[in-house]
Structures are given as structure tokens and as C-alpha cells.
């Protein structure tokens, strides 16, 4: 028996099909496998190494039947097929090759491609398997059927396992999806719980901060109450001292008046005695002269004539001095235009201001202390005044506290307050109505501060008196001296411009008008609407119509006209008619181009009845949140005027 090693010149696998057949195949199985292989190869896009031109048929049916009944066994080398074809002539084969049984392929048809590779391979008819008997064929068939059954069982088991695996996979996927959903739901729940927890923390923190703020405000109120009680106690002591001082002053004044009266009586008695003695001497001299005349003594006539001449000369001198005094008073009246009552008040306030300055200078020299820090504190408080009730109340209480500070004399702090208030009205951020409220609050507790403040106003602006000074070359000598007298400022040797002076004049009048119209429940304004009405009457009766007076009147009406109308109603309307008929006509008669804007403003104010509209800033804004806490009953009773305000 000769063994053959079948090797094909093609790859080991084609389209996933191995060329190594399974062992113990039947011939029919080989044919079917070959047919299926050819179909796959023909259907593949790759070039086919061989082409079948003739179908595989068995020559006679007997051999087919016998081959169908018998199986065959074929063994192929385990090594991979090599490309080298020249080794087929070797006579010794590998040990891995096993002898196989031959079978007859008498009528086996091979394609031309198979024969083309190696035609000599099948020249001699060879038998791969010997013929077997019936029992062996049946055994082979049974073995083959058993193998097929096992393969079917394996396939069934594999399919079953695949189905179970797919179902398990589906179950695991569904479980995984449920787990993911649960995880998402849990994450959302955690997020909601976290948000809720943060909200609770924020609420707790807010409540804690609110409680801390409330405690702080209560402590601040307690401290403020304590400070106010101390201030009230100090104020009571100060008032008591002031009463004692006033009583002593009155007693001293009474004693001085009595002494003065006694001195006048003594002087009058001495004068009467002197007059009596002179009369007696004159009578004696007259008697002597008469005796001399009667005696005819001519030497006595000369002394009589000299006495008459001397008496005539003295009468002439007295008449001349009286004429000069009348002339000087008439010239002063023609220069200064103001009501007599206004000039008297100005003189009183200026005198008080002068006395306060002298007192402060003596205190500074005697104590050798520097009070500039208190003055800077007062200036800072005035600059911080804003149009809110809480701010105004706070600044007023702090200023009163400074006035009652024993480390600084009250006269120095009050004088600094008056100067800083008047100078602050020139700043552009000046809140005139708020400053008016602070002034009324402070002066209601310290009345002497009002006279000093008005004295500073009159010193800075003569139209707050009201007073006007006309230019006279004989009185002033030059225009520059006149400008300095009425309030122009000099900087670097130059007088300020007319426009700058009018702007400052307007700012002074706006603050003065805001002061006179300020009304606070529970507090008395020592320079209120009655003084504002008196200022307007004195202004219209005494002052001429010019640029200065028109600017002052316009500023006063803009700030105080609303309050004056509410107080005096029709009487204020009559005042406006006087302004329209007299003052504005006098301004127009001057035919000055600079007067046209101010004339238009005053006329518009009267014709449009703007005095019915409350000026901007007159009503202060509401208090801040920290001042909305309701104080206790004792606090309200102690400081009723501030709470009403």
C-alpha cells in the first residue's frame, strides 16, 4: 500500500473554511462538502484557483452504493502546507503521516484546474481505502450517526447556552439600567437634600446674624441712651450754672445801674450847683457892670465888649459843629440802605460775635491748649450732613455732645460751629435744608449759638441783614475798597469776579432762607418764619433794585417762598404783587442786560405760582433701617422731640 500526502496549492483557509477535512467522512459527505466549497469559492470576490467544468458523477451505481455504505479514513499532515512544490519527489515522508486505506475512484472527475497543477500526481490509479465488509460498513455508519447525534446535541446545547446567555445578558442589562436609574434617582435625592440642608444652614445663619444685629442695635441704643442721659444731666448742670451766672450778672447789672444812677444824680447835683454858682457869679458881675456904667467909668466897657464877642464866637462854633454832624449823618444814610431795626440787630449780633472772639483768644492764650482737633471734628461733622432724618439727628447729637465736652470751652466750639456752617454753604454738595434742620436742633439746645451764627452770616453777606451799601468815591476812595467792604474776596492781590461773588451771595441766601423756613415738631426755631417775613418786609422797604439785591431776593423766594405762603397766605400774595409792580419794574428801568435772567426767574416764579410747589430737598428722606427699631418708653419720654421728628 502506498500512502499519499494530498497538498493543495492554495491557502489553508478560504473564506473561513479550512482545507483539512474531518476524519471518518463518508464519500457522500465529501461530495457535499466539496460542492458547498465550490459554491462558496464561486460566490467569493477573490479569483478562484480552479474551475469545475464537469459535475462530479460516479461511474456506476454499485460502487456508489458500496461507497455510501462504507466510510473512509483520510489523514493529512498536521504541519501547515508550504509553498515549495518541489519536495513532492521525496521518497521518505514525515513520521506524522499515517498509512491510510485506499478507495477506488474509477470514474472520479477532476477539474482542469486540478489537473493543471500536477498531472503526474494521478497518472497511476491509486486506492485510498480498501473495500470493507458489511459489518464494518454498518459499524462505520453507526459511528457516523453517533457522531452526528453527538454534534446535534452539542449544537442544541450550544444554542440553548446561547439563548440562556442572551437572556442572562438581557437580565443583566435590565438590572444594570435599573441600577443606573436608582443611582440617578439617588443622586437627585442627594442633591435635593444637599440643597435643603444648605438652605437650612443659610436660614440659621441669617437668623443668627439678625439676632446679632438686633443685640448690637440694642446695645447701641443703650449706649446712646446713656450718652443722652449724661448729656441731659450735663445740660441740666450747665443750665443751673447759667441760671446762677445770670442771677449774678443781673445782680451785678443792678448794682452797676444803681451806682450809675447815683453817679448821675451826683453829677446832676454838681451840675446844678455849678449852674447856680455861675448864675450867682453872673449876677454879681452884672451888678458890678451896672455900678460901673452908672459911675461912668469907661475903662470897664472894654471887658464887657470882649465878653460879648467871646460868647458870640462860641455860639458860632457850636452852630458849625452841629451842621457838620448833620452833614455826616446824611452822607452815611445815602451810602447805607437798610431798616433801622435791621441795623440795630446787626450791631447786637456783631458785638456778641466780637466779644466771643475776644474771649476765645484770651482762653487760648491763658490755657496754652490747642483746640484745633475739636474744630476739625466739627468741620467734618458739618461736611457729612446729608438729607436723611437719621443723618441729621446723628450729626446734631454729636455736635451737642462736643458743645458739652468739658475738655473744650463752649464758646470755642460754638464759634467754630458758626464759622464752619457759613463756610460750608459755599461747597457744591451743601444740603441747605438738612443744614437748616441741624442748626435748629443745635440752637434749640444751645440758644447762644444762633446769635453767633447770624453774626457770621451778616459778616459774610450783608444782604442777610438785609443791607445795601452804595458806592461813593468820597467814602470809599476806590472801587476795590468798595468791593472789599460789601464782601468781595481778594486772592493773590486780585478781586474775585462779579460772577463768583454773585454765586457765593446766592449760596449764603439759600442757606439763610432754608434756616428761616425750617420747622421741627417739638422744637422752637429762634429765627423762624416770623424773622423771614420781617427780612422780606425790610428788604422791599429799604433796599434798591440792582443786580445784588435781585440775586438775593430770587434765592430767598426759591427756598422760603413755599413756607411763607403756607404761613401768611394772602399777605404773602400782596408781597409778591409789590415785587412785581415795584421791584421788577425798577430792575427793568435800569436796562441792564445782566439783569434779564434774574428778572425772568423772579417773574416766572410769581406767574407760574411755583410757591405752591414744595422745593426739592425740603422734606428729608426716611430714616435708615437701623433707626426703625422702636425704643422703650423711658427712651421716648426722655427724647420726645427727636422721636417726633
UniProtKB/TrEMBL annotation:
The keyword Protein transport is assigned to this record: yes
Any one GO BP annotation for this protein: poly(A)+ mRNA export from nucleus
Location of this chain's protein in the cell: Nucleus, Nuclear pore complex
Biased composition (Basic and acidic residues): 272-291
Highest taxon, organism lineage: Eukaryota
GO CC annotations on file: cytoplasm; nuclear pore cytoplasmic filaments
InterPro entries xrefs: GLE1, GLE1-like_sf
Keywords: mRNA transport, Nuclear pore complex, Nucleus, Protein transport, Translocation, Transport
Positions of region (Disordered): 272-326
A Pfam match: GLE1
Gene3D superfamilies given in the database record: GLE1-like
Presence of keyword Transit peptide: no
GO MF term set: inositol hexakisphosphate binding; phospholipid binding; translation initiation factor binding
Main location (coarse class): nucleus
Composition bias type Polar residues, residue spans: 308-320
Family classification: Belongs to the GLE1 family.
Protein name as it appears in the record: mRNA export factor GLE1
Source organism per UniProt: Acer yangbiense
